[in-house]
Amino acid sequence: MDITQFFGRFHVLVLHLPIGILMLAALWELAIQFKRANRPILLNIIWFWGAVSAIAACILGWLLTQAGGYSPDAVFIHRTFGILTALAAIIAFVYLTYFKSQHKFIVSGLAVGQLFLLFSTGHYGANMTHGETYLVDHAPNIVRAGLGFPPHKIPRSKVTDLSQADVYLDVIQPMLEKRCISCHNDSKQKGKLNLTTLENIMQGGKSGPAIVAQDLHGSELYHRITLAHGEKGFMPAEGKTPFTQEQTNTFKWWIEAGAPATGEVTQFIKTKQDKVLLNNLLGISDEFVLAPIEPISLQQEIALVDAGFVFKTLSQNSNYLMVDLSVKSQDLTENALNALLNISQHVVSLNLRNTHTSDGQLVQIAKLTNLQKLRLEHNPITTQGMQSLVTLANLKSLNLYKTQVDNSVLPLLSEFPVLKSVFLGETLVTSEQLEIFNNQSDIKIQGIMPVSSFVAKAGK
Amino acid sequence: MDRRDFIRRSLLGAGVGASALAGMPNLAMAQQAKDLSGVLGSTHIPAKAKRVIYLFQSGGPSQLETFDYKPTLDKRHGQELPAEVRGEQVLTGMSAQQSSFPLARSVYDFKQYGESGAWVSELLPHTAKIVDDLCIVRSMHTDAINHDPAITFLQTGFPIAGRPSIGAWVNYGLGSDNPNLPPFIVMVSSNSGGQPLYSRLWGNGFLPSIHQGVQFRGGAEPVLYLNNPQGISTSSRRDLFQHFKKLQDLQYQSWQDQEIQSRVAQYDMAERMQASIPDATDLSDEPDWVFDMYGPDAKKPGTYAANCLLARRLAERNVKFIQLYHQGWDQHDNLPGGIKAQCKKTDQASAALIQDLKQRGLLEDTLVIWGGEFGRTNYSQGKLTETGYGRDHHPGCFTMWMAGAGVKPGVYGETDEFGYNIIKDPVHVHDFQATLLHLMGIDHEQLTYKYQGRRFRLTDVHGHVMKDILS
């Protein structure tokens, strides 16, 4: 406990009293001079208390500076103005209260001077607590230019594809700005660390360089953000929002890639996990990669409804469609197929569960080039029909549950460019072949669960 | 101007007579389109989850005998709950008068399972096998300490009755994906009992009544009177209904009451359900190995296991919100025996549901939720003996799990060594609700309904999406 600090901190409370009281007095005096009104005796009391509170603010302010932590230059100028304000208030009080004849110009001068000193003191004091750029942070560029500040940075446009993303400007810097910069910047450098530019980052702070290329252990920043929450030295400090797992992993990826200062993100991506990580971090989902598309026409909508489809757009901001024929117990007729082909670019997800879809019809389905998810469960489809689908360049999920495909479908699956998950339960595919395939392939295939083991193991 | 206003005004503008009659088919079509697309028209963001299966474990399952393993309770078994751990936590009237609050360990053993190394108790052998599909949230907390307000809070976002339930909000916002089945279906286990449930938990609150959940019966026939009465043909029934509809439309024109439309829509739905319900609820086409998966109860209609199987069939048919309730988790005394029986009734079927959805490709876009309304105390309510103890209600922490669409498997959140307070990543009920809506593509701050002069939403003025658990 530090008693000087206890009182010193009341400075920020008390300082508002002289501002209010002295401003009132000064403005009132000016008004009297201009309007030639009578001067009430009350004003003397106002000046008196203004002077007292100014002196009190000076003393408390001096106590506050004893603990240090403020730049000496800033303290000097604020203190000088503060003392002058108090002196001016005393002079004004003495002159206006005890001098019989008062000269109009002296009174006006005292009042104007008092106002000037008040504003100056307040301004320099506020600079110390809020930072010098506080008032212009959100100023229009024209105001900033007039005051000699550089114009606002143009925000980088939202990344929609990894190949557009710059490794520092789009990935690393935004994370630092969000979580670190408020304490580690040009004017406030906690731990002597400045994280505004890559040079400063490499240079580091009191505890050494923040980032060392390809050296996780030597990178103090990585060390600090991966400590247990609440452990001494954990960053961001003081209970501010910590980095997420995803974000710390991204720092790890960046450091291991040699902490590149610039360059396309894709250059530094080595594994599939890296790609997933960065896509997630940047909020790039595959749906957004689709180019904007016009909504389908009313005629096309009516054709879909008549054929028994239930359909919805992907979201309010997208005209791509999720189309479903499964719920109305109708078959995939020629009409239905034509209605689909009419909107072949729009369909990203198609559910044909239990609609008697045949191998021959899959040739037409393959024309839905933007298809990402296709459900074909409970249909008389064989491996032969699957041959025609391999051209679907965007297909990620394929459901063949309870179809007639056999083991020969497995090699075919590897030919799909981006296929991620396939469902082959209750088909002619044998579990042995499935296991062999699963061990070799990136594609996640879900066969039928071994029920026997499930029941037996859990049954005891 | 929303769609309802538009319909209302265009009808009023149409006046009376022939032009009003001409407007009627459009009214029906507009109503049908609205049922399908909901008030939002489409989701705010692309939805990860197209449907939800919510396995509500009513009564407050003890987290300490299921998922939240606390070795410290083993060591300090029988010692007093330290005052600084209890802090200012209010206790219920059932245990507040106790002279002593002895810490009680779990009589059941825990082991770590799966890649996530999640601790699961021996009571849940089936769930233990699927932990790598689950996101186990151990840091849930709620505002309410007694059953009714706590369930009401979880299901409607407010502890006092009168607000719409989650399923009603989802239906109001997103409509339906299957015009032949109700979009919000509720099933209460017939093989459970305990603290009562009320239909307002799946009610529409101030939303139009068409959005309320439809409860299936627990017996062999989930929906009654699907067949036409003897001697009455389908065509004559339809005839009757057409005339009835005309009367309703006349009434609607003079009163403009939303509830008239709701009523007509329900008659329409009932007719379509005559065909769709037998198809959805007849389990005779399920092979034996499926029943084996869900366990012996699966063949007894109305049990939790049978309801889980039925939930899977409804999910296959694109029912958007399927809510199960299983009562009886309120173990104030004889907890070891009680919770063992509860787990036996629910563990295998819950796990089988996940597995079954997974192998059919449905877990990709179905969100499954398991959990109760609050947790239970780490001290014994009543006398602590070697094998017997009870636990009182504890709103400070409890465990839920989620699985499937858009959720990252793993263990989230942490409680202190006493299992009493949350020390990492707390998740409030409103956060959970915000996350659920987010996964369905809804911005929880943007789905509102104006009622009695102000706009209401599920999360009231609270709720943060749990970003860290999203995949």
From TrEMBL, chain A:
Q: Name one Pfam family in it.
A: PSCyt1
Q: Where are the transmembrane segments?
A: 6-30, 42-64, 76-98, 105-126
Q: Which UniProt keywords apply?
A: Membrane, Transmembrane, Transmembrane helix
- Give the superkingdom in one word: Bacteria
* Domain Cytochrome C Planctomycete-type: residue ranges: 180-236
Q: What is this protein called?
A: Cytochrome C Planctomycete-type domain-containing protein
Provide the species name. Answer: Paraglaciecola algarum
UniProtKB/TrEMBL annotation, chain B:
Is Signal there in the keyword field?
Answer: yes
The organism's place on the tree of life at top rank:
Bacteria
Keyword Signal set for record: yes
The record's keywords, sorted A to Z, are: Signal
Q: Which InterPro entries match?
A: Alkaline_phosphatase_core_sf, DUF1501, TAT_signal, TAT_signal_bac_arc
What this protein is called in its record is DUF1501 domain-containing protein
The top of its lineage is:
Bacteria, Pseudomonadati, Pseudomonadota, Gammaproteobacteria, Alteromonadales
